[in-house]
Design brief:
The radius of gyration is 21 Å and the shape is globular. By secondary structure, it is α+β, with helices and mostly antiparallel strands.
Amino acid sequence: MVRMSDLVRGVKPGAPASAPPAPPPASRAPSPPAAEGKPPEPPAQVRSAARVTLRQAPAAPVEAPPTSAETPTDAIALFDELQTVLEAVRDRARSAQSPSWDALMHLVGRVVDSLAASGELFWAANAPTVPGGHDYLAFHQACVAILAVRLGANLGYDRAHLVQLGLAGCLIDVGLWQLPAAMLRRLDTLSAEELMQYRSHPRLSAEIVQRWTPPFEGLVDAVLQHHEREQGQGFPQGLAGGNVHPYSKILGLVDTYTGLTAPPSLRPGLRPHEAVREIVRSKNESFPPPLIKALLSEISIFPPGTIVRLNTGEVGRVIAVNRNHPLRPRVEVYDAKGQRLATPKMIDLSEAPFLYITGPVSEATR
């Protein structure tokens, strides 16, 4: 079992203590054994239950990143546009038509550039509530794509691989559009037959993507395997460790996280720090510790806006995450009534060794 203390000790963005999933190589030629301390290469060939044959294709086009700072309004507009495009993908899937790969990859490229420019899009996709006006699966896959790109950037993926990863995130659940919509709203109470149907969706998604002639090698496997888990306890194939596509490991983690913070059912979602704790407390080693460390350094147990109590008894609001020390963010201290002080008092807990957070505080109880 992963311990929280293990995850937060010495976290450094881009250089986790143990090896993260490596980006897939340009071809499927066998790779030499990884040197100690180096990221392992994915297997030379990943067996697919969908019996698909992948073609080699050029890497995603590289575009110059934006030069101007992004505003929250820009980020929300891009998030909305991505959901709208994924609703169009849904309609094409239902009518047996292929999407425009060039247009979709261009849009994902804009997502990559937005995340490189600022964190606005990341936090727009990290809201613990499901916005109205869009299909839930379009919303969910948009969130998965955005969070996966952010995590991939943390792990050192280059732009071309980030576009591929984001594209896979946009498509992991296209197969769920083939199943009854009501099933999603009661995932906790499915019958044995319905559970079998639900567990078929990675295969359905992979088959749909394969029919569309995927634009790069590995996309089908990445979609097919996003519910596989590190110790082989996932589905549909029960793959483990190095047999799981590197993209699938990232997608599986952010898919789980997003399902906890913004579930399709009527039950309320968890707050970001609660979702991370739930993942960390998992009884099984579902995800590689380096991935959980990367998620922790991006999300933080105490993301911006969280009300926390310090060991001094003071209450404050987290205003910035310290990525090197995710449990020691910057905090603005409030008064005993939970109001901002006349003269703002800021504390960087990474520079205050004798101060620490004892836990989050509910808005209703402070």
